[in-house]
Amino acid sequence: RPHTIRVDLGLVTFIDSGGVGSLVAAYRVAQAGGAGLVVSNASPFVSRQLTVAGVADLLGAPRSGDPIPRL
Questions:
Q1: Which of 30, 42, 58, 66 could form a disulfide with 35 if both were Cys (CB 3.0 to 4.6 A apart)?
Q2: What pTM did the predictor assign?
Q3: What count of other Cβ atoms lies within 10 Å of the Cβ of residue 48?
């Protein structure tokens, strides 16, 4: 079993509340299974949306305005 599930958002240019909700639901399922879930390669727009929604820290995403690491 993986310890961490990494969701690569590198090709995601838009995310709305449905997408954010899906990421949070996936995070909860991962946690219930003993794993973590983090997002990577989020565009500035996606990173901002996750920050505004209050889930950037939960999902390990850089906060809007922070440097965005490319993995």
A1: 30
A2: 0.85
A3: 17
4 has which bridge partners?
36
- Residue 68 scores a pLDDT above 80: no
Q: Which two tokens stand for residue 14?
A: 């838009």
C-alpha to C-alpha distance for 26 and 51, rounded to whole angstroms: 17
Phi and psi at 5, nearest 5°, equal -100, 125
What the block records as the tokens of 52 is 């505004």
Residues 23 and 60: their CA atoms lie apart, in Å, by: 11
Two tokens, residue 13 = 């240019």
User: Could you tell me which residues come within 8 angstroms of residue 56 by beta carbon, excluding any fewer than 6 positions away?
Assistant: 47, 50, 62, 63, 64
Which residues, 6+ apart, have CB-to-CB distance to 17 below 8 Å?
A: 53
Amino acid (1-letter code) at residue 9: L
Q: Whole-angstrom distance between the N-terminal and C-terminal Cα of the chain? A: 21
